[in-house]
Each structure stands twice: as C-alpha cells, then as structure tokens.
Amino acid sequence: MGDSAISDNQEVKSITEKGDHPFADDLADAEEQTYIESECYDTVHPLPEGWPRLQEKLFKRRNLYFRKPVSASISNVIHHLQKLQNKLEAWSREVELEILSQHSSTGNSVIDGPSYEGGREGLGSKLSAGRKHLRFAPGSAQSSNAGVDDDVRSGSGMSSVVQELSIHGKGAVIPQDVPSIEILDEDLPKLGAEEVIDEVVTLLGRLETDRQDTEGTLEKEKQRVHWLQGRIDFLANKRLVELPRAVQKEHEACAADIAELKWHCAYRGRQLTRVKNKVESAEMLNARLNEDIAFVKKHCPLVEEKLDLEMEAMKRIDEAQNQTTGELNKMFEKLKKTEGKSHEAHGKADMERAHIKKELDSVRDALTEINHELDEAKSLHTSYTHKCNDLRRKLLSNAQEKVVLENRNENARAAEKMEGVKVKQTQDMIVDAEFEHRRLADQNYQFNVKIDTMRKDITGLKEESELANKKRLKELRQRQQRCDEMSMDIEDIEVKLKNCKKQKVADAKNVERIKREMSKVETQLGVVDEEHSKTKVINNAVRSKLMGEKDKVALKEDQIQGTIEGLKKQHKEETHSRTILQARILADSTDFQKLQLEAKKKKSRVEKKCNEIENVVASVLSEVEVQRSTKADKMKVVSDLETHIADVKVKHVEVENSLQNKIAELEPQHKKLQSDYLEKQKKLDYMAHRTDFIQKKLAEQDQSDNFMDRVIKNTSEAIEELNADLEEQTIQLETGQRQEQELKQSLMEVAQRLESGDDDHLEHMKLRREVLAEHEASLKDKLQENSNLAHEYRTVQQEYYQQKTNFLQEFEIRIGLEASLKDHKQLNSLQVRLHDALARYFTLRGLYHQNELAGFEENSQENAERILSLQKEMDEAIETISQFLSDQVDGTAMKMVLAAADSAIKKDPQLQLQALVSA
C-alpha cells in the first residue's frame, strides 16, 4: 500500500511537472482523492525491534559497504533515494503509457474512483505483501510531496535543510472488505524497491544511532568543557597565588647570587691589586738591589781597602762578643742577687708574720678583758632590771592595798549606817579578800617562775651573742691578718714588678744595642760577589714568597668558596671577616711602607758603611789568624757551656717531676680544704644571720629599757601623788581607827572562825613548800648539768678554734709555698728563655763567624789570583816597554823598518817606480 502510494505520488508529480498532458488535472484530482482515502485506511505499525540499531542485526554482510565513516551514510541514502525516484518515475511513465493505450483502445471504459482505487489497492497489496514499507508522515496532506521534494532538493544541492530530520515508520494493512483486482505479476516490472527501502531503513537507523551517540558525546564534551573551565580557573587562581611567590623567591635568589658575585668580583679585584702591588714592590726592591750592586761594583774596586774594612769588622765582632760575655756574667750576678733578695724577702715575711701573730695574741688578750668588762656590765644591767621589777611589784601591791583600803573605807562607812545588817557582808568580803590574796600570791609565784625562765633565756641568748661576737672578732682578726699578708704580698709584688720593669728596660736597651750591633755586623758583609749572591737569594726568596702567597691565596679562595654557605647564613661573621680583611690590608700597607723605609735606611747605611768596610778589610787579614785561635778557645767554652746546659736541663726535669708529685699530693688536701672552707662559710653566714637577729632583739630590749625608764619616772611621779593621797588617807584612817575599835569585837568573833581556816591553809602551804623544795632540788640538778654541758661546749669550741688556727697556719704555709712555686716558675721560665736566647745567639754567632771566614778566604783567594794576574800583565808591559826602548836606543827598530820597506818595494813594482820618481 505504501509503495503504491509512493508510485502514485511520483506519477502525479511527474505529470504536474510536465503540465502538457491533456488529462493532467483530472489525474491529479483523482490521485489526491485516492491518496486521502488510502490514508484513511492506513494503520501505523510499530518499528521493528532493535530500532535504530538495525545495522547490528540485519544485513550485516550487505551493510559492510555502508559501515564506513558516518558522513558517507547520508550521501548513500540520498543517492539511493534519487535512484529510487528515477526508477519510480520511469515506471510511472510506462504505466501511464499503458493506461493511455488501454483508454484509446476501449473508449467506452470510464475510470471510476473506486475501481481505480481498488485496483491500485490490490496492486499495492500484492506488491507489498510480505514486505516492509516506509512512509513519510508530514503535518499536511502534501507531506509526501514536500518530503520527496525536500529530499530531492537536499540531494541535488539546490537548498539547505533547515528543519530537523524526523523519521516515522508506518505499516500498511490491506482491508478485507475491499475487493482485490487480480493483476498478473508478469505485467508489473521488478524495480528492486524493497531492497532499496531496506537499505534506506538501515541507513536511517545508523543515522539515528549516530545522532544519539553524538548527543551523548556532546554532553560528555560539555561536561568535560565545564570541568576544564573549572580546572583552568583553579590553576589560574593557583598561578596568581604561587607565581608571585616563585617570582619573589627567584628574585631574592638572583639578588643573593648577584651580591655574592659582586663580592667575589670585588674580592678578586682586591686580590689582583694586592698582588700587583706586591709585584711592583718586589720589582722596586730588585731594581734597588741591582742599583746597590752596581754602585758597590763601581765604587769598591780596591781589594786592600776591603781587607782593611774586614779587619775592622772582625775587631768589632770581637768587641761585641766580649760585651755579650760580660753581659752574660752580669746577668748571672743579677740572678744571684735576685735569689738573695728573694731569700731576704721570705725571711722578712716570716719575721713580719711572727710579729703579726704576737700582735694578734695581744689583741686577743685585750678582747678577753673587754669581754669580762662586758659581762660585769651585763650583771649590773641584770641587777638593775631586778630592782626595777621589785619596784614594779611594790607599786602593784601598794595599788592593790589602796584598792583594799578604799573598799574597807567604803565598807566602814556603810557599816556606820548599817552595822548590824552588813556584818555578814563584811565577813563575806574578808573571805573574798583572803581568797583574792591567795590567788594573787599564786599568780605572783607563777610570774616569778616565768621571769626566771625569761632570765635564763635572755642569759642563753646573751651567751650565744657573746660567742657569735667572739667568732666574728676572730674572723675579723683573721681577715685583718689576711689583708695585712695580702698587702705585704702586694708590696713584694710591686717591688718585684718595679725590678722587673727596670730589668725589662735594661734588657730592652741591651736587645736594641745587640740588634744594632747585629745590623752593623750584617751591613759589614758588603763584599761584591757575596752581595750579588745575596741579591740573587733575595730575588729567589721574593719569587718563592710570591709563589707561596699565590698558593696561600688559592688555598684561601678554596676555603672561602667552601665557607660560602656558612657565610650566607652568618652575615655578621661576613662583615666581621671584611673588617678583618680591611685591617689586614692596612697592616700589609703599613708593613710595605715600613719595608720601604727600612730599605731606604739600609741603603743609606750601606752607602755609609761601604767606606767603613773598605777601611776594615785591610786590617782583617792580619787578625784572621788571631781570631781563629780565639774562635777555637771559644768553641771549647761553648762546648763546656752546652754540657753545663744539659746538666741544668736534667736538673730542671727532676725539679719539675718533684713539683708535679707535690702538686698531686696537695691537690686532694686542697679540695678537702675547699669543701671545709665552704662548710665553714655556710656556718658563718648562719651565725651572721643569728647575730643580726640578736642585735635586733638587743635593740628591742634597749627600747624596752628606755620605755621602762619612762615608766619608772611616771611611777615616781605617781608615788609622790600617792604619798599626798596617803597623808589624806592617814587622816581618814584616824577617823577609821575609831570605827575599827568598834569593829574589833566583831573581828574577834570572825578571827575565831578564821583560825580553823588558817590551820587548813597552813597544811596546804606545807604541802606546797615541799613541792617547791623538790622543784628547787631538781632545778639545781639541771643547773649543774647545764654548767657541765656549757663547760664541755667551751672545751669543744676551744678545740675547734685550735683546729681552725692550725688549718689557717697550714693554709698560710701553703700560700707561702705557692708563692715560692710561682717565683721559682717565673725564674725557671726566665732562665729557659735566657738559655734559649743564649743558645740561639751562640749558634747565630758561630754561623756568622763561619760565613765570615769562608767569605774572607774566598775573597783572599780571588784577590791573590787578581794580584798575580796584575803582576803578570805588569811584567809583560814592562818587558814590552823595555824592549821598545832598547830597540829605539840600538837602532834595531829603524833597521827593521827599512828592511820591511825594502821587502815591500821589491814585491810591488809600482812602489819601485814611485821611489825612483821621488829620487
């Protein structure tokens, strides 16, 4: 049904496009009606299973051609559709021609809609039986035409497809009610549309799958683009944050590298300038030395004057040697004197120490007397305090009695008024007064006991304070003694320092004089050949120094390169090293200037002493033999001195070993003494704290004494007032006595009652007295024990003081030994230094004499050879002169001249002609 509709549509389209057929309009109308009717009967069947991926199931072998790139499937679909359209158009033309031929043959037959439609339907049903069909479902009735036109136009390339491609598969159902027209299959041509349609369906399915795949990939790409945008933003932010840091870090590293390179460049520049300066200075020195050598060669040609100068130099050397031996003897004498002075100083120190000990003993005796006086004063103070306490008690008793009397007076007055009624009250009052009297007596006894305990405590504190004062006084004396000893030691050291300074000045003068003599001796080595060799040696030494300095510079550079990392971390050390290098540069510059000045001075000295050497050399030859003999004697003396020095060294080693053993023995004792000293110092600090506390208590006691004095004054004034009151009271008592006489009768009765109470009181008092006697006996025993303990404490304290004095004496002895050891060490060091200096001096002097003698011998040999050569030349010259004179006198010279002239004339004919012409 679908194929018939498509063919009809194609036929109508072809007819309408041509427009020249006579029945074109009728055919078009009929075709539209048939198409509408056929669509009414059409039913849309579902798509086949697996849509749109049919290519994976159907026609796998046939579809291999279309399973190439995705873009080729669209062109294949368009191509197949065009081929199908062409075939349908061709078939529709053939059918139209057949129909026209049938119409023309019959003439009576009329084309009816239903019959034509039924025939077409039957034809379509036969064509489409058992086959798949495809229909395009447009929105209007002309959808098929529009779809075909769009396909054709898109295939031909006339217009672009704007709308989205949509495929709707529809099936065709043959209605059963419509009668079918049997048409032979032989009449219908086989167009191959089924295969093409199947291929188109598969291709469209591929297009749909490709579209879905592309949509999925598009969404994935969008998600990936979104993720990439977020990632790019994150990386951009990270770069914005990290890039400035990295740039800053790189900038700082570059700045540090640039600074380091600048420092290296500056350091290399400084090294280069320094080396150039050294090279220039060496060249200047070499040029000056060459000038000096040329000057010496020019102005010192005579050997005799040089010999005279050498003789004078040898004399001076001998004089210097004699002076040095004399100075050595003087030094030995000074050493002996210093040893004697040291022994005298030790004796004086011992005498002064004994004198100081005597003075300390006298001071100790005076201190004991002062302590006795202090004890007496303290006893007086205690007696006065007891008296004051007694007076206070009396005042208290008087005050109490006054109160009692006032009470009695009041009672008496009341008794006058109420005699009978208040007798019982007076009796009660008397009983209460007696009870109060007893209570007050007990309180008085308790207060006395407390006062005794307080006195004992005060006496104990006083004794402790006295002991602390004694200890402090002893410590003060000891410290004064130490101060005196230290002052004596300081004075001795000052005297020694003064002597050392004097000796130092004398030694400095001697050293300067020796240096001058050595410089003179060195300058007297002015022989030309020797100086030339010396200049060569100096030049080589300068070169070697330059090489050594270059090596040192290279080593220093390596060291500096090795310490670059440390210098980065320690910028302060770098600045410090820079300052050190600057100081070294300044020192090198100052040394260079000093060398220049010394070179100038040496040049002037050489110029001055060249003349002296010329005068000395002449006298040297005559004294060489004498000096050799003296040298042999001196070598013997030197060998003796070396043996003596070896013995002294052995003794020195033995003394050092013995001293080290003593030090090893004394070190543990020293440690023990130090520990004891620390413990004693702690105890002294505690005692000082206690003394301060006691002094504070004494100050408080003094304040209390002053307060008591004031109270006593006030009490004396109160006593005077009370005396006045007593006079008044006596008057009142006289009046009261009258009343007493009246009351005695009542008192007698009361006394009788009290007798019984008195007996009880006496028994109680006896018991209390017995208890008091027992307590007093125990107190005496305790006091005796306390006195014994105090005696033992004093003995122990005396032993402690004796041990302390012994330790101090040992400490003083040890200090003296240490001082003597220090003195011996100083003397030993001075002797060692003097020995080293003498040994070096004698070695240098021997080497110098050997070099001088060797130089003198070489010079004498050269001078003898030169004199012999001069004598030979003089003899030859004299012989030639004498021969010439003899020839002149004898006429032999004229004869020889004439003979020579004759021989020449005979040989040359021209000379003969000239002789004839002249003749």
UniProtKB/TrEMBL annotation:
Composition bias, Basic and acidic residues: 10-23
Source superkingdom: Eukaryota
Ranges for region Disordered: 1-23
Coiled-coil blocks: 74-101, 272-323, 451-531, 712-746, 772-799
Alphabetical keyword list: Coiled coil
InterPro entries: CCDC178 (IPR038826)
Protein name, entry field: Coiled-coil domain-containing protein 178
Biological source species: Holothuria leucospilota
